[in-house]
Structures are given as structure tokens and as C-alpha cells.
Specification:
alpha/beta; DeoC/FbaB/LacD_aldolase; Tagatose-bisphosphate aldolase
Amino acid sequence: MNELTTLEKRALARISTPGGRLLIVAADQRNSMKAVMKDAPAGASSVTFDQLVDAKSDIVTYLANHGPAILLDPEVALPKIVDDGIIASNTGLVVGLDASGFELIDGLQYTKYVDGVTPRTVRDMGGDAAKMLFYMRPDKQDEGSLVVQQVRDLVTACNAEGLLLIVEILVYRLEGETEEEYKAIFPQLIIDSARLCVEAGVKVLKLQYPGSAEAAAAVTAAANGTPWAVLSAGVDHETFIGQVAIAVAHGASGAMAGRSLWKDSLTVDPTNREDLLTNRALPRLLELEAVLDGKHVLV
């Protein structure tokens, strides 16, 4: 386990439930958020920058302000949403560092940083923590690989700033790899990615659900005391909340939920959006928090 500093412990508490479980509403998506706004007159391409800002603002107002924390991006949402006073004083802010998309190097995927965003600028935007996405294939990469060095470098930079860093890992299917081949090794890829990250100094992880209770327990063992949260990966709420319950029962520390909460509640029309976020998305968030804190048992 990589020990949290006092500042990091305080930041982690700020983005956690009363029961001490990590819970963050993820709204740092850009193109995928546009894609679910189904009433856009000409599809996602017709959603304007200002409309996307307004949608993110409403996710904060009607959803995330009722939970511990919100994850936002510095390309669209920040610093405007902070400067406009939309985030509630008791809602933590996690700032996403990763730009949309990825680049291929020798057949492997690598994320890019948003231009000009550093641990220092996360502080300047009012962030309590930072989040960075890395793609990993630990069957092709090891502790000496480029991606693990990138993780180490960011850990060092955030440590120097006293900033809590959440590292999100996505494993992925390689070109030429069949779905069956990928499915067979998927849990082990997540387990081995967790181990590589902890060895690189990561203190909080955001990971895909590894597929079973047994695999979740193996991820917890690989994390070696490092908190890990389950990401929703676009599945529906009922599926995700079941995954979270299993993962937490086997050592996970929380959840980071995006599209599972709000993907069917976003419209270009702000009146419809307010109604859907309030009456459809918010009950999901409250149910997720209750499951995390053991106040609601799934049957």
C-alpha cells in the first residue's frame, strides 16, 4: 500500500460518502455525452459547445450536488462551472487531466493530457483531486514500459503538489485479437494492471469491473491496500449497481458512475433535462450511495 499524506486523506474524505466509500459522478465525457443527447436536431455533431456546458452544469446542479463529488473536464466544464458557483460548497471536485481519444504506438493505445493542464492548474481550478486515464495491456507491458513510466511521472508531479491522484485504467482488445480471446484474459489484465500501478506509486485506482466476485477479490489482493473504485463503463444502472455490490463485498472502496446514471436523462431541452435528472438520475445516485454504505441490500 502507498501511504496517503494528510492532505490526500482529507481530499479522499471530501469525495467519499458518510460511510467512507468513494463516490464520484463522472461528467468529464465530451463526445460520448453529446452522443446521448438524442433530441439534438442533427445528432451529436449539432450539439454546440455552450449546450454541452449547460448539460454538464445541470448534471452538477440536479445530480452531483446531492452526492459527495463530481468529475469534470478542463476543456469544456472548467473553470466556468466553478466560477459560476454551480458546484455546492459540500461537493468535492475531481478534475480530469486526459484529453479525448488516444494515439497508437506500436499497436498499443496511449492517452494524451489536456493541453496546459497540470497538477498546479488543478489546484487553480479549485480541484480537490485529479484523475488521469491510462490504457494498459500488462501482457504486453511491464514495469519498464512507457505507460508505467508515464504513471510514475504523474504520481511524482502530484506528490510534489500535494494533490490526490486517481489513476483510471482501461484495458482493451488488441487489433487481431478475437472477442473470445480477450474475454478469457480480461480479468487477469485488470488484476495485473492494478499491481503495476501500485508498484508505480498509485494511491487510488479507478478500474473496470473484473467480471466476478473471485476476480474482484484478486484485484483487491493485487492493489495491496490501495483503494479502488469501480467505473460504470456505460452499462445500465441495474447492471452497474449489482457489479458495485459484488466488488465492494470483495474489497473495492467505491464507485465512479457516469453514463449509468445520466445517459438516458440528457436532452438539449433544459426543461426536460431538469425533470429527467431529478426524477430518473438522482434516485439512481441515492440508491448507489445507499448500497455503498450498506443501507440498502439488493435482492
